[in-house]
Amino acid sequence: MSIFSFFIKEKIKSQRDISFENEINKLYKEKKYDEVISRALTFRADEQELSYHIKKKVALSHYYKNDFEKSLTLFEEIASIKNDVESWFNVLMSLMPLKKTQQGKAVFDKILTMHKGLDPQQPRELAIPNIRFYYANGLADNNLFNEALEQLEEIKKIYMTIVITDDTFVYIRGIPFLSSTLDLAKRVFKGLCSDISDSDFIKELINKVDDEGKKTIKNSLENECV
Fold this sequence. Notes:
Elements: H1 3-29, H2 33-45, H3 52-64, H4 68-82, H5 85-95, H6 101-115, H7 128-141, H8 145-162, H9 167-171, H10 178-191, H11 200-206, H12 211-225
Helix pairs in contact: 1-2, 1-3, 2-3, 3-4, 4-5, 5-6, 7-8, 7-10, 8-10, 10-12
């Protein structure tokens, strides 16, 4: 094969890959998860390796279809290569609904270790407070309420430190909304057969946050009594 022919073939291949990736992105954006998976399988049948971006879309499609075994397999493949917080976070989110909580804890600990020294401009959802929140939800889903409360206690410390609880303020810092944290806390305390209203968790929190936070806590507890 001449050098000219080689470059022509590579150019055609590159154009085809770009076109395919655009197609997958469009299907994924439209939440056509079955089609994303089907097209990727067809592409692989032609002995074409999926790019990282397409493999991630396929993994997410399996995840949103609640096919966590398949999403886990792909996310683990990605994490073994990328080895970054986002990839391992996706692994964690697939492990928890599969009740693989011991593996989940190992991955969560790995994320905490990796997170040190990361660029502060990273996506907000990958900030440690948000990761703790998602992990705590997974623990609660597995009835591991004491472990979930440990994560909530760490998040509580952040609210007590920053004091301000305005949604925009906490959002841009990668901290879950106080209302969302309280909803999870109520579920956890209910699982522990404990009264959240009389807990140190609430007493310490309400003593430190701003007036808006105090109002949010009061409204949340009143709704709990309805």
